[in-house]
Design a protein that fits this description.
Blueprint: H1 3-22, E1 44-50, E2 53-55, E3 59-75, E4 80-85, E5 92-93, E6 98-102, H2 105-133, H3 139-164, E7 167-169, E8 174-176, E9 186-187, E10 192-209, E11 221-226, E12 229-240, E13 250-258, E14 269-275, E15 282-287, E16 292-294, E17 297-304, E18 307-318, E19 322-327, E20 334-336, E21 349-353
Parallel strand pairs: 1-21
Antiparallel strand pairs: 1-20, 2-15, 3-10, 3-14, 4-6, 4-9, 5-8, 6-7, 8-10, 10-13, 11-12, 11-14, 12-13, 15-19, 16-17, 17-18, 18-19
Length: 354
């Protein structure tokens, strides 16, 4: 064999031996070797909360308005000129205080004329009554004189009532507004002159849903705040409308509050808070971020034996941060409050207690 041919044969034998050494070995039975076990799935780190019953102190907040305890638009009853305005705009007036005087000169003149007629009629009736006892005059003549006297007396009463209407008085004590008329103004019956409000006590008017009817009733204590301050003011519910509004399904409720120092003004907007749970109620509260919305309601992930288990729950009342659970969670359950989007039912989790 030539030297070049021998060299080629030795090189081919070496390559073949190398390939055989690198090829996978087969079991003696001729079957392939078993695949290696897959790596274990790492546990998902999650924050958890151990559920426990606690007193429920939930409330609902609605918009409302302050109203005066009593309010009236002072109006005129006669067509007369105003002769005097007897109050200062925005002042406090007492019940019975004169606010306006109207021109009454013509009424006084008619009263004086009527009094003269009354004197004559009274004298005539007295004389005829004496003559009737002696049968000097007929009964008919006396009856005519008596009827005239009574008619004049009634006319005087009408004029006295008309005269009283020329003095317009405050029907109750309160804060008077800004007068819409001045001395010399000719007013007509029903014409508004000024508003009078009793703001010593104010009413808080607000609307609630029909589901709260059993919770907000006369005697219930509520709280409200105004745009002036975040300080909570206490009030007591005193009344409600007779029926629920058909369109909104709400009912108007009124509460009263003492306005000491008149710090509050009627017409102000307020935020009313009232309790929505009984005083001794208890329940399980969880953060709202633990809730998972679905087509059939809400679910949560409970952690049991290191594994996430999805569980349906019934949610009661809730606010921006907390939700009351009526069913699905009991005291002592471990609730996931983070990484819900990455979790799945049956996934191993590594809890971090909060």
């Amino acid at each position: 064999m030539q030297k070049s041919t021998l060299h080629s044969w030795i090189l081919a034998s070496a390559i073949t031996a190398s390939l055989m050494a690198c090829s996978p070995k087969k079991q003696e039975s001729g079957k392939p070797a078993p695949a290696a076990d897959p790596a274990p799935v790492p546990a998902l780190p999650v924050d958890i909360l151990v559920a426990s019953e606690s007193p429920l102190q939930q409330s609902e907040t609605v918009a409302g308005s302050l109203m005066p305890d009593r309010s009236v638009e002072i109006t005129a009853e006669l067509m007369k000129k105003i002769t005097a305005v007897l109050f200062r705009d925005g002042s406090y007036v007492q019940a019975g205080q004169t606010l306006y005087s109207l021109d009454n000169a013509d009424i006084l003149a008619r009263i004086r004329q009527l009094k003269a007629d009354l004197q004559l009629a009274a004298a005539t009736e007295k004389r005829l009554n004496a003559l009737l006892k002696t049968e000097t005059v007929r009964q008919e003549e006396y009856d005519i004189a008596l009827a005239k006297l009574q008619s004049l007396q009634a006319a005087e009463e009408v004029l006295q009532v008309e005269l009283s209407k020329t003095t317009i008085k405050a029907p109750f004590s309160g804060r008077i507004g800004i007068s819409k008329v001045f001395t010399g103004t000719l007013v007509n019956p029903g014409m508004p002159l000024v508003r009078l409000e009793d703001q010593h006590t104010l009413k808080v008017s607000f609307s609630i849903g029909e589901k709260y009817l059993s919770l907000v009733k006369p005697g219930t204590r509520i709280q409200f705040t105004t745009v002036l301050s975040d300080e909570k003011v206490n009030a007591v519910v005193v009344s409600a409308e007779a029926s629920v509004d058909l369109s909104s399904r709400n009912i108007v409720v009124q509460a009263t509050v003492a306005n000491n120092g008149e710090k509050l003004k009627a017409g102000m907007s307020v935020k009313v808070s009232f309790p929505t749970t009984p005083g001794n109620a208890k329940g399980v509260m969880i953060p709202t971020e633990a809730l998972i919305p679905g087509g059939n309601g809400y679910s949560v992930f409970l952690v049991k034996n290191g594994v996430a288990k999805i569980t349906g729950v019934t949610v009661g009342s809730r606010n921006e941060s907390q939700a009351q659970i009526n069913a699905g969670i009991v005291s002592g359950d471990t609730v996931m409050i983070s990484n819900m989007l990455r979790a799945s039912d049956g996934m191993p989790v590594s809890p971090v207690i909060h």
